Amino acid sequence: MFPLEAFGRAKLGWFYGGLGVGYYIFSGDYSPKNSIGGFAAAGIEITILGLGAFGELRYLYLEPDLDNDISGSVDMSGIGANIGVALPF
Fold first, then answer.
1. Calpha distance 53→13 (Å, rounded)
2. Could you give the 3-state DSSP secondary structure of residue 21?
3. What is the DSSP annotation of 24-68?
4. What CA dihedral angle connects 49, 52, 56 and 62, to 10 degrees?
5. Which of 13, 50, 63, 84 is surrounded by the most beta carbons within 10 Å?
6. Whole-model pTM?
7. Is the dihedral of CA 19, 44, 23, 72 positive or negative?
8. Partners of 47 in the beta sheet?
9. Do 43 and 71 touch, CB atoms closer than 8 A?
C-alpha cells in the first residue's frame, strides 16, 4: 500500500490532534482496489536541533473493495502508532 495523505491539525504546545484524508494505492496480484479513506490522529511533537521529533496514535478508516473479479470489501480500519522525524518547511 502506498498512501497519499493530507492532514489538518490543531496544536497546543507540544500536543496536537487532527483529521486527515488519504488515497491509498494498492499493488499486487490479489490486492484491493485503490481507495479513499480517512483518519484521526493525536500526538506530541518536540523540536530538537531544528527537527521535529513526534509520536502519534492514529485511527484509520479504510474499507477498499476487492479486485480481480472477487466481490466484497475488506476492512482495513484500526489503530496504529507512528514515531519519527518531521522536517519543518
1. 14
2. strand
3. EE--STTPBPPEEEEEEEEEEEEEETTEEEEEEEEEEE--PBB-T
4. -150
5. 63
6. 0.83
7. negative
8. 52
9. no
